[in-house]
Amino acid sequence: xxxxxxxxxxxxxxxxxxxxxxxxxxxxxxxxxxxxxxxxxxxxxxxxxxxxxxxxxxxxxxxxxxxxxxxxxxxxxxxxxxxxxxxxxxxxxxxxxxxxxxxxxxxxxxxxxxxxxxxxxxxxxxxxxxxxxxxxxxxxxxxxxxxxxxxxxxxxxxxxxxxxxxxxxxxxxxxxxxxxxxxxxxxxxxxxxxxxxxxxxxxxxxxxxxxxxxxxxxxxxxxxxxxxxxxxxxxxxxxxxxxxxxxxxxxxxxxxxxxxxxxxxxxxxxxxxxxxxxxxxxxxxxxxxxxxxxxxxxxxxxxxxxxxxxxxxxxxxxxxxxxxxxxxxxxxxxxxxxxxxxxxxxxxxxxxxxxxxxxxxxxxxxxxxxxxxxxxxxxxxxxxxxxxxxxxxxxxxxxxxxxxxxxxxxxxxxxxxxxxxxxxxxxxxxxxxxxxxxxxxxxxxxxxxxxxxxxxxxxxxxxxxxxxxxxxxxxxxxxxxxxxxxxxxxxxxxxxxxxxxxxxxxxxxxxxxxxxxxxxxxxxxxxxxxxxxxxxxxxxxxxxxxxxxxxxxxxxxxxxxxxxxxxxxxxxxxxxxxxxxxxxxxxxxxxxxxxxxx
Length: 598
Hints:
The protein is of the alpha+beta class. It has helices at 28-35, 54-57, 130-133, 162-184, 207-216, 229-237, 248-252, 326-329, 347-350, 410-425, 472-482, 495-506, 572-591, and strands spanning 2-7, 39-43, 62-67, 78-83, 91-94, 139-143, 148-153, 189-194, 246-247, 262-263, 275-276, 279-283, 291-296, 308-312, 315-317, 323-325, 522-525, 536-539, 569-571.
């Protein structure tokens, strides 16, 4: 049996990547089957209940559970899929406080824990805003009998806002209180998901640099790495002696370096494995005999994270020498209904929309139907809207430029444009329709007009505006690129040399070279909204890595490692001007247009 966790960074963007784009939209179950796990936990669904497609909400072979933010749509959100044939969920709750309740509320027998085991009743959590901490769709608690699984998406550690730092600290306290309450109930626990914190120096690509920087300030050993509250909390949670959970994946690979699960895609950090390990599967010590192996799957793309999984033994031998089979303790293959908060019980999935009873069926087409001539095709009718169980977000197209669509054949559009042009030029007009709107039969047999219309050729003049600060070489390059013949009346001495010179002059400019490595730079485009959006620029083509030059403001000079990307940057427009100026000057010399004696 396999249990898998993955921050997918958006359930609607995942199918855009290979191999997920090989599955049809209606076949989300194919994506789940490809992951080859019995319990699948997703974080950052970035959806809402109203926007969730039915194929994603209730795949046929899985029981599914979701938690979405109450106020902010397209943000956070977690999901648990349990394969009905191998893992049956006995109970399930949204959130970790026990305060998020369906209608009607869960009964005592439907709840996962006793009332005193929830964080609201735990010491140290009295002053926390429990409802606010459970309102962002960050956790699901599912009871599988053998263990209670908590799928969690902890708040990000990438902000300095005081209120979010406090929110994250309070969420950690609430989460730990929930785990401790379950352990006091003698339950085994699996805590998994995106914890947004590193558990060890080895889990961070720049861990050693962080430690060295702290040691320069007098902080001993690796204590500087734990100055952040989130890292210290996670370290204490899995400590060998005092911890309550076990980092089971690291237990199987204690010394493996580069076992990262998250990368910054904006700087292409995944190419050089410059990342962090912030996705975990933590288990209570009593489950260790069941754990067979665990690892990460960095080869699976589609998100800035990669999946993490553990596998369980099919059976173990208990302290009495008896075989205990996993299928028996997980209720595999049972036919009873899942917990009431399962998505299959949502009203939008179990009820048929009233509009479906009024959809007109298509009328039968007579066999002797007459097909209209191709000269006057009727406009294609829009497809009959089919009822949907959940609304699909509308795309805003008012400000977008028109794009050719397969639903509008280009040939027809061209014909209409030609007819309009013929009317302006005095050509034959299109056949007129009669009063009833139907084209007359005689119009199809009219002789084509033989009138010829002579149109005046329009001459266009290209205007180039030069800045006053453009140098002479750049002006010369622009001038030469528009002239049909060289200014000199004397024939060139070497035709091959002339051809090469012109080829270099008119060829697209070569990319500039970075200043540190003297290697061709890589072209990039600004995608962030702002005044520079769409502009191209060049940066060093080397990948990022520990100590790469992120700029003087972000990297101290003695920490820079030149084997990685340097801080070279140049706008493409500036690079083009410089290259054209150099090319124009050298080509002019070869063609004999520049007097080197003057």
